[in-house]
């Protein structure tokens, strides 16, 4: 399956890429069925915990696309007005008032570099874009509204990347005498729908405000010249807390745009790297 992913990235034309994608989907479906048969009880426990907020079924029962799945969950909540697990006010479950569609993207402009004996050993720069759809669920009890966001990934793409890894050191002190160019990339297993049970953007509110979490995709970069491999490290979770009033302004504008530096707190992420979130509330 990993080889098919690389084939898709380097396919000489759309037709060849489509054939490889069809074969990858077939193998993935077989693997999903096998895992469902062998570990139904374990899968049920994991799925229930990860997706309980949306009353989600087992992975085998998910809708074919993330757009359809989000609509299914939204319709279920709006139709039944169920209590939302996880939204609790002093032990009393909040009542769902309504679920609103949303959509957006995150863009990671990052890079990494490392040295050995004071000399450059590997370097990588990249721009990764991930789009998503989801729901904003508004619930309430005791005269106060609470909010929660859950999302599903729709597409992951590496828009730009370049880098190299030292494959051979010579001399004393050692210097790099052979480089391997980074010219391949692939999405890590489990990052594409329906694998990302926790979504791309999540949020919950409490008495103090709204806590937003952004979790970028895991991308592995490699070289066709050898076994060189680098994993993108700037997509780790970004956490942002805003006041209730600021979040209500987001609702009134129906748009959110946040750009934050990602290199200060994430190990292996080059200073100056950034993560940009754009989200439209009310998009269907």
Can you describe this structure?
This protein is α+β, with helices and mostly antiparallel strands. It has helices spanning 2-9, 14-38, 40-51, 66-80, 244-253; strands at 83-89, 92-116, 119-141, 144-170, 175-181, 184-187, 201-205, 210-214, 219-223, 226-231, 238-242, 255-261, 274-281. Strands 1, 2, 3, 4, 5, 7, 8, 11, 12 and 13 form a ten-stranded antiparallel β-sheet that branches. Strands 6-9-10 form a three-stranded antiparallel β-sheet. Helix 1 (2-9) runs antiparallel to helix 2 (14-38). The longest helix is centred in the N-terminal third of the chain and has 25 residues, at 14-38. The two termini are 33 Å apart. The relative contact order is 0.14.
Structure described in brief:
Helix content is 25%, strand content 47%.
């Amino acid at each position: 399956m990993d080889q098919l992913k690389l084939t898709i990235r380097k396919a000489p034309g759309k037709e060849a890429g489509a054939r490889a994608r069809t074969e990858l989907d077939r193998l993935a479906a077989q693997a999903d069925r096998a895992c469902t048969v062998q570990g139904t009880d374990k899968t049920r426990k994991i799925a229930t915990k990860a997706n309980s907020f949306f009353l989600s079924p087992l992975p085998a029962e998910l809708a074919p696309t993330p757009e359809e799945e989000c609509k299914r969950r939204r319709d279920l909540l709006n139709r039944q007005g169920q209590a939302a697990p996880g939204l609790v006010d002093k032990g009393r479950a909040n009542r769902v008032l309504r679920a609103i569609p949303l959509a957006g993207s995150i863009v990671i402009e990052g890079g990494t570099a490392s040295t050995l004996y004071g000399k450059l050993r590997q370097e990588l720069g990249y721009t990764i874009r991930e789009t998503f759809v989801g729901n904003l669920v508004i619930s309430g009890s005791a005269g106060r509204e609470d909010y929660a966001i859950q999302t599903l990934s729709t597409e992951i793409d590496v828009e730009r990347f370049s880098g190299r890894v030292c494959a051979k050191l010579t001399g004393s002190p050692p210097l790099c005498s052979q480089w391997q160019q980074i010219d391949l990339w692939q999405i890590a297993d489990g990052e594409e729908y329906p694998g990302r049970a926790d979504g791309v953007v999540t949020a919950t509110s409490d008495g103090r405000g709204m806590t937003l979490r952004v979790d970028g995709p895991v991308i592995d970069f490699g070289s066709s010249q050898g076994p060189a491999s680098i994993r993108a490290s700037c997509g780790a979770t970004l956490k942002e807390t805003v006041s209730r009033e600021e979040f209500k302004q987001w609702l009134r504008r129906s748009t959110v745009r946040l750009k934050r530096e990602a290199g200060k707190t994430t190990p292996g992420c080059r200073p100056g790297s950034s993560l940009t979130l754009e989200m439209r509330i009310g998009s269907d």
